[in-house]
TrEMBL record:
It comes from the Bacteria. InterPro entries: Macro_dom. Signal peptide: none annotated. Transmembrane segments: none annotated. Coiled coil: none annotated. Residues 1-171 form the Macro domain. Pfam families: Macro (PF01661). This is O-acetyl-ADP-ribose deacetylase. It comes from Dysosmobacter acutus.
Length: 174
C-alpha cells in the first residue's frame, strides 16, 4: 500500500510527479496557492489552462508543470465553505481528492503532493477538511497501486499540527 506523509512546506518547490492546485472553476489563476503555482510555473501554465475552458467544483484537470520541478499540475476547484450543510464534505472528498488521485493514477504518477484544498480563501475549517482529506487519501491508497506516495504539504505549523492530530486520531493504531 502507498504511504501518506504530512510535511510542512511550500508546494511550489515540490519534486513530486504531480502537484495539486487548489484552483477555482475558471482555472485562470487566482490568489493563495493557485497564484503561487502560476508564478512558479511561468506564463505557459496559464496558456494551457485557457485551453481547458474551466472545471466544475470537485472535478480535476491536468496540465504540464512547465518551470516547476513537478511534471504535472492537477487543478481542482474545491468547495466554498457555506456552513457544512451544502454537500461540502462530499465535494471535497469524492470529488476533489478522489478525482485528483484518479487522474494521477491515469498518468502513471508515483508521487502526488496536495495542499490543504479549500482551507484558505474558500474558508473550509481546517480540522474538518483534514478528516475528509486523510480519509479519502487513505481509502484510495489502500485499494490502488498508484500513487505510491502522497504528501500533504501544509503551509503553516498550525495546519501541520491539525493534520497530525487528525491522523493520530484515526490511523495511529493501524
Ligand atoms: N504551499 C502549500 N500550501 C499553501 C501555499 C503553498 N505555497 N500557499 C497557500 N497554501 P487557498 P482555497 C495553503 O486560499 O481555500 C485562489 O484564489 C493555505 O494556507 O490557496 O482552496 C483560487 O484561485 C491553505 O491552507 O485555496 C480560488 O479562487 C491552502 O493552501 C481560491 O483561492 C488552500 O488555500 C481557492 O481557495
Amino acid at each position: 500500500m502507498g504511504k501518506l506523509e504530512l510535511v510542512l512546506g511550500d508546494i511550489t518547490l515540490s519534486d513530486a510527479d504531480a502537484i495539486v492546485n487548489a484552483a477555482n472553476t475558471r482555472l485562470l489563476g487566482g490568489g493563495g496557492v493557485d497564484g503561487a503555482i502560476h508564478r512558479a510555473a511561468g506564463p505557459e501554465l496559464l496558456v494551457e489552462c485557457r485551453t481547458l475552458h474551466g472545471c466544475e467544483t470537485g472535478q480535476a484537470k491536468l496540465t504540464k508543470g512547465y518551470r516547476l520541478k513537478a511534471g504535472y499540475v492537477i487543478h481542482t476547484p474545491g468547495p466554498v465553505w457555506r456552513g457544512g450543510g451544502c454537500g461540502e464534505a462530499e465535494q471535497l472528498s469524492s470529488c476533489c481528492y478522489r478525482s485528483c488521485l484518479e487522474l494521477a493514477q491515469q498518468y502513471g504518477c508515483r508521487s502526488v503532493d496536495f495542499p490543504s484544498i479549500s482551507t484558505g480563501i474558500f474558508g473550509y475549517p481546517m480540522a474538518q477538511a483534514a478528516t475528509v482529506a486523510l480519509r479519502t487519501i487513505m481509502d484510495f491508497l489502500s485499494s490502488h497501486p498508484l500513487p505510491e506516495r502522497v504528501r500533504m504539504v501544509l503551509h503553516s505549523e498550525d495546519a501541520l499540527r491539525v493534520y497530525q492530530q487528525t491522523y493520530n486520531m484515526w490511523y495511529a493504531c493501524d
